[in-house]
Specification:
Pfam families: FAD_binding_3. InterPro entries: FAD-bd, FAD/NAD-bd_sf, HB_mOase, RIFMO-like. The structure is a single chain. The protein is α+β, with helices and mostly antiparallel strands. The protein has two domains: 224 residues, 3-Layer(bba) Sandwich (FAD/NAD(P)-binding domain), CATH 3.50.50; 123 residues, D-Amino Acid Oxidase, Chain A, domain 2 (2-Layer Sandwich), CATH 3.30.9.10. It contains 14 helices and 20 strands. The strands form four sheets. The chain has an eight-stranded mixed beta sheet. The structure holds flavin-adenine dinucleotide and 3,4-dihydroxybenzoic acid (DHB). The site of flavin-adenine dinucleotide (FAD) has 32 residues, from helix 1 and helix 10. The site of 3,4-dihydroxybenzoic acid (DHB) has 10 residues, from loops.
């Protein structure tokens, strides 16, 4: 088989890129290691920047998003049980949209099926060959047989644990990493959200986040220890912990119920440079990870897709390689700003095991400055709604 672009990974990056390239007349195949049901069952991000929303529209998958998403004009921050608001609209005239990653992926799969685009599931042992030469190809095993696809370019959209990044020789790669000494325990419950805006809380017992998916589906997170197992956390323990970390009036209003999903995610900042090696381009979590505080993971994957899609269409339509030649440089410039913001939000909102009394005072002073200073709030709002592409 021969395709113009082989996309490894059928998560949001790979599917969004595939749909945009398809509409530009570029022939692609998506290779996904898992099956469709598994990909669609993953509960992850919830907040979309305007740039990502526009990309979804450009990819022809904006209709349900338009109908079913919720506009969020601001957010609440609680510090030691006292709350203040950051009003994005008032500060900078912009908003974010609440629409789950699960829905984004569902819409992208439905669109791909509608146009008859190739997606191969249950692909094992994908391997990238000759990426630094003019005629790269990908081999993999499926249904017990080895297959090969020749192509012009390979998009590595296969997440943090994928094969693409590791295909770049270690001598070429530079990796930057920070691992945080805690994780997030997240639950989904069929209960009304405690508040119509998100609440990010830094309490003496650690971080908590109140989010949602719709009027009867809540998404809550609490900071947990790295060694914790989901089995250690009964629903009762989760609700008690969450309630305790929120301002009393919020805790009292919390409606609890059985969790329908519960999982623990470790927190890490990670960037691998460069994001291009020959004819291989890394996109999304394959190249970088942010801690989830500030909701930048999916949105940063989307900005990579924008730069790569623009570069590839320039290459095929205008015979101009400037966009793909500068892909790594352009994508990384924005990635590092999202890394900085996520690291800052994480540092501001969590309790660290080794935090000294001085560190705690610094965190408190930073919070007080943010609460009282509109310029500081504007900086947060500008980053939260998303920097321009
Ligand atoms: P992924 O979503 O990881 O998709 C990669 C795809 O590639 C997967 O479908 C995988 O099965 C496939 N794949 C992997 N290896 C191979 C291979 N060798 N061959 C073929 N296919 C392969 N972000 C937020 O903003 N807010 C959140 O609350 C949040 N929560 C998260 C919770 C968890 C547990 C995780 C892991 C991430 C979370 N993120 C969150 C980050 C956000 O979900 C990611 O940034 C986003 O999924 C990135 O999309 P992606 O397509 O680049 O990678
Ligand atoms: C959600 C996750 C985040 O990391 C965040 O900052 C905001 C919302 C969510 O899953 O809804």
């Amino acid at each position: 088989m021969r395709k113009q672009v082989v996309i490894i990974g059928g998560g949001p990056s790979g599917m969004l890129l595939g749909q945009l390239l398809h509409l530009a007349g570029i022939d692609t195949v998506v290779l996904e290691r898992r099956n469709k049901a598994h990909v669609l069952s993953r509960i992850r991000a919830g907040i979309l920047e305007q740039g990502m929303v526009e990309l979804m529209h450009k990819a022809g998958v904006g209709a349900r998003l338009e109908q079913e998403s919720y506009l969020h004009n601001g957010t609440l921050i609680s510090h030691n049980h006292e709350m203040f608001g950051i009003d994005f609209q008032q500060l900078i005239g912009k908003s974010v949209v609440l629409y789950g990653q699960t829905e984004v992926t569902r819409d992208l799969y439905a669109a791909r099926e509608k146009v008859g685009g190739d997606v191969l599931f249950d692909v094992e042992d994908a391997e990238i060959h000759d990426a630094e030469r003019d005629h790269p190809y990908v081999t993999f095993r499926r249904n017990g047989r080895t297959e090969r696809i020749d192509c012009d370019f390979i998009a590595g959209c296969d997440g943090f644990h994928g094969v693409s990044r590791r295909s770049i020789p270690a001598s070429v790669r530079r990796e930057y990493e920070k691992v945080y000494p805690f994780g997030w325990l997240g639950i989904l419950s069929e209960t009304p959200p405690v508040n119509d805006e998100l609440i990010y809380a830094n309490s003496p017992d650690g971080f908590a986040l109140c989010s949602m998916r719709n009027a009867n589906l809540s998404r809550y997170y609490v900071q947990c220890s790295l060694g914790d197992d989901v089995g250690d956390w009964t629903d009762t323990r989760f609700w008690d912990t969450l309630r305790h970390r929120l301002p009393p009036e919020v805790g009292e209003a919390l409606v609890t119920g059985p969790s329908i999903e519960k999982s623990i995610a470790p927190l890490r900042s990670f960037v691998s440079e460069p994001m291009r090696w020959g004819r291989l381009f890394l996109c999304g979590d394959a190249a970088h990870i942010v801690p989830p505080t500030g909701a930048k993971g999916l949105n940063t994957a989307a900005s990579d897709v924008h730069y790569l899609y623009t570069g590839l269409t320039q290459f095929y339509q205008d015979k101009d390689s400037d966009g793909i030649d500068r892909y790594s440089e352009k994508a990384l410039a924005r990635v590092w700003k999202a890394e900085r913001f996520s690291w800052w939000m994480t540092s501001l909102l969590h309790r660290f095991p080794d935090q000294s009394p001085f560190d705690l005072r610094m965190q408190g002073a930073e919070m007080a400055f943010l609460r009282d200073n509109e310029d500081a709030q504007r900086v947060l709002a500008t980053n939260y709604v998303g920097l321009p592409y």
